[in-house]
Design brief:
alpha/beta, TIM Barrel, Beta-Lactamase, eight-stranded mixed β-barrel, about 30% helix, elongated
């Protein structure tokens, strides 16, 4: 076989320390001009037989494992395993990669087995994962987020590390809806007990988005492309320290703006509450002029039943929409959080930020008591934050409960 593949190593950076925690082994080859390029296409090249592709894959993996002896202290190597090749094994009792590892007497704590595909036979993949886990290796799942069909597989396999799909990360750095999706996936991975790794990080903004996804590790050209030699673990600490400092400053400023805006909202909602207390009919509200960020409000009883129409804010005044009268909103977290407060009369609760389904704009809901029997719910536009990476900070803090008495 004339093709010669070899491993390069891309650092995996730990967000909490800034140091390199591990290295992903990636297959490389020389092109016709002698340049080092990715060999990824080789493994799906139909001009090569399956046997040839498998042999190339195993050879580059063996070369990577042989370099563990030069692995810096307290770091690991991540090697890619495709379940696709398993169908060509006679039995899972003898797995070539496991045999390599045993022959090289590799410390299991130095290796992360990265499963690159989840579309194959789930039973086979699960048995593969169990075999590696029995030997003491950590398991990573690649490209999480490419399809929700993966969710049942993730729950079943219980990976130690979940790598978020890099295409989602890139689009999320400029699109607030996609950013929310990536953050949701990061939160889900954490709740499943897996460490989050964001790969493909190339810009500061993508790194900041990774932090908002609870990423334990990050990987990408922002820190280093794959190299023939493993970088020293401390080579990224200064860069990460500077990035974290800038992120912290932006987050503090955004949070300060959030609290300032919360005070403005509080004053407006207190004024609205006084109007509602005195109002004897819906017509009594026609003279209350709200700022543009108050999109709508409505009233519920203590059981969560909506007892008023939606009052929609428009340039023509209040538009009354009866569509949701009688709906019950007691199941929403901000509702029962208000009811569970020790001093319900003097509390204002905000929901998590969300995309308003009626306008498509970023919003939050504020909730407070009007009197002992009625509750005011106000949907507020999160002004100017549609593409802000710090939308989680710039909106009022979720479930924040300031004094209003």
């Amino acid at each position: 076989m004339s093709l010669k593949l070899f491993p390069y190593f891309q650092p995996i950076v730990e967000t909490a320390t800034g140091r390199i925690a591990g290295y992903e082994a990636l297959a490389r080859m020389k092109d016709e001009n002698g340049n080092t390029v990715s060999a990824g296409r080789i493994f799906s090249d139909k001009d090569l037989s399956v046997k040839e592709r498998i042999e190339l894959d195993r050879d580059v993996r063996l070369q990577a494992l042989q370099q563990i002896q030069s692995l810096p202290e307290d770091t690991f190597i991540s090697i890619n395993i495709s379940p696709e090749w398993l169908q060509y094994l006679e039995s899972l009792d003898s797995i070539p990669t496991l045999e390599m590892i045993k022959q090289l007497a590799v410390d299991p704590s130095k290796v992360v087995i990265e499963i690159t595909e989840l579309d194959g036979d789930l039973d086979v993949i699960q048995r593969l994962v169990e075999r590696y886990r029995e030997e003491g290796f950590c398991i990573a799942i690649d490209d999480f987020g490419t399809g929700f069909s993966q969710l049942d597989r993730i729950a079943l396999l219980k990976p130690d590390i979940i790598k978020l799909d890099m295409t989602l990360l890139k689009s999320g750095s400029t699109d607030s809806r996609r950013a929310s999706m990536v953050q949701m996936l990061g939160e889900l991975a954490s709740k499943l007990g897996s460490k989050v790794l964001c790969e493909g990080v190339e810009t500061d903004d993508e790194y900041y988005l990774a932090l908002s996804c609870n990423a334990v590790y990050v990987q990408g050209f922002l820190f280093s492309e794959a190299q023939s030699e493993m970088l020293l673990p401390d080579s990224t600490t200064k860069q990460v320290k500077d990035l974290l400092s800038h992120y912290r400053d932006m987050a503090i400023n955004a949070t300060s703006r959030s609290h300032w805006r919360a005070e403005k909202v509080k004053a407006e909602l207190l004024s609205l509450r006084e109007v509602l207390k005195a109002a004897s009919s819906d017509e009594d509200l026609q003279y209350f002029v709200a700022t543009e960020h108050l999109m709508r409000f409505y009233i519920c009883d203590r059981l969560g039943n909506q007892i008023s129409p939606n009052f929609e804010n428009s340039d023509k005044g209040w538009i009354l929409n009866e569509k949701h009268r009688g709906f019950n909103w007691s199941w929403r977290p901000y509702f029962f959080e208000l009811l569970g407060s020790a001093d319900t009369k003097n509390r204002l609760v905000f929901s998590e930020p969300y995309q308003d389904i009626h306008t498509g704009q970023r919003a939050q809901t504020a909730v407070l008591f009007i009197d002992d029997s009625r509750i005011l719910l106000a949907d507020l536009l999160d002004e100017g934050q549609e593409t802000d990476l710090f939308n989680g900070f710039s909106a009022m803090p979720a479930s924040w409960i300031p004094e209003i008495g």
